[in-house]
Write a structure and sequence with these properties.
Number of helices: 5
Distance between the termini: 44 Å
Oligomer: single chain
Order of helices and strands: HHEEEEEHEEEEEEHEEHE
Radius of gyration: 23 Å
Structural class: alpha+beta
């Protein structure tokens, strides 16, 4: 019975502490922003019906020291045809970059023009039907926004310039919102994969974007 009486007194104190002012402050407290790892929608695993015609055996990679496109002697020529596989979607992986549709490009430009770069491809089809426009896309913003006190994950090459989180072990990330600021899409330093906020996810859903996948970075 002594325990029950003590509990009642505690409840009474808590009710007294919950003044209208304190309740209003709790309601005003902003919720932490949600961030997502941007990758592929694995429902589109079959071979895409496109191929890059003029790179030979070359692998296109961003040059060391920062995100950018490699030097090219001519525009990329993209053949799109149903004989090669399924119809291409809005977000396709291509080497170290992404191939994006005009619709996907529009979403990214509307939300965060400074965070992305595009390189137009010359598209063609084997049929009489005109091939849709596609762009090579890169997320070029890299920011040191990982909150290391709250992030859980294994660090490889710690103490070196090539320090990075082991993505194979699915780290759980937290980010410093004051560092992220108004950015909607970026690459975290020491991880390198693409991260976006809720605004990007919502905009892609509203636009009917296909091929892109999102996973909560805090989910481990």
């Amino acid at each position: 019975m002594a325990y029950e009486k003590c509990g009642k007194r505690d409840v009474q104190r808590e009710r007294q502490a919950m003044t209208p002012f304190s309740i209003e402050n709790r309601l005003r407290k902003p919720k932490p922003k949600k961030f997502y790892h941007v990758w592929l929608d694995f429902r589109f695993q079959t071979a895409p019906g496109w191929q890059m015609e003029n790179i030979g055996g070359r692998t296109l990679m961003s040059p060391p020291g920062g995100r950018s496109f490699p030097p090219l002697s001519e525009p990329l020529r993209l053949l799109i045809d149903q004989s090669l596989g399924r119809a291409p979607v809005d977000w396709e992986l291509f080497h170290d970059f992404w191939l994006v549709s005009e619709r996907m490009k529009g979403v990214l430009e509307a939300l965060d023009r400074e965070g992305v770069a595009f390189l137009k491809c010359e598209t063609r089809s084997l049929s009489r039907k005109a091939a849709p426009d596609y762009w090579l896309c890169d997320v070029i913003r890299v920011i040191d926004a990982i909150d290391e006190e709250k992030t859980r994950g294994e660090i490889l090459n710690d103490g070196t310039e090539s320090r990075r989180y082991d993505g194979m072990r699915r780290p759980s990330f937290a980010f410093k919102e004051e560092v992220v600021g108004s950015a909607h899409i970026f690459r975290p330093r020491f991880w390198g994969d693409i991260v976006c906020d809720q605004a990007v996810k919502d905009a892609c859903k509203a636009a009917g974007i296909r091929g892109i996948g999102f996973r909560d970075v805090a989910g481990g």
